[in-house]
Amino acid sequence: MQLSRFWRLRGLDGLGLMRARYVSHAFARHGHETFAVGVIQSGAEEIRFADGVERIGPGGLVLIGPEVVHTGVALTDNGWAYRVLYPSAGLMSELAGTRGTPRFIERVVDDDRAARLVLRAHAATETEDRLTAETLMRRALAGLLRSYGGVPSAVPVRSSGGAFSERAREVLHERMTEPPGLEELAAEVGVGWSTLVRAFRDAYGLPPHAYLTQLRVRAACRLLERGIPPAEVAPMVGFYDQAHLSRHFRRLVGVPPGGYQQGGRIVQAPSPGSA
pTM to 2 decimals? Predict the structure, then answer.
């Protein structure tokens, strides 16, 4: 059984939220443009990062920074249920009082008080007025940054591999709906295809084809938020049809395009008692 709901708030820089229960669903490797702050409410989840695996049970708090590539899958037959916040880098910078994007020094913590504050703030967006919900949310996120935040990461020195990986990334953005083949892409940036795949994965956490899929899904999110029907969105971002869009969208976002569209438009906090 898979149950999920996504919605977005008018305030807090369009903060995204999701509550879900997954049993057989497996998230493909992906990263978020935003932070992802989640609390496991029941069951257990396994999250695989580039440098290791985390297993989180009830009460566990997950803190993931922007563009950190990871997966997500149930650790037990009963799956897992959680609530997740998606605060923007701009909001987190404001709350941290920093010029650059802050970072979390830990990605999984056991902190009952912090977890309760996050859950209370998350639930308030469905049951309380906007003033109350935004106040609780700011308090919860600011508390996490005080306890587990670090200074912004330094910009890495660009290597030659980073240079042609960046150019390949630019090509994928420019030609998202009609991308070149792998060998053509490699030739365009001046390296062999195997070298490109390896360097691109090192730079962005995903091989070029998976990065392209994530790019298309993100573009689809923006179009869905504008109210464009999923069937029209699919070819606009490079998918064959709505079924093709839906398959990849759910693997990365966790909800189908229609469900995302229903809650993804920036709105005031839902009315008390809404589902």
Answer: 0.85
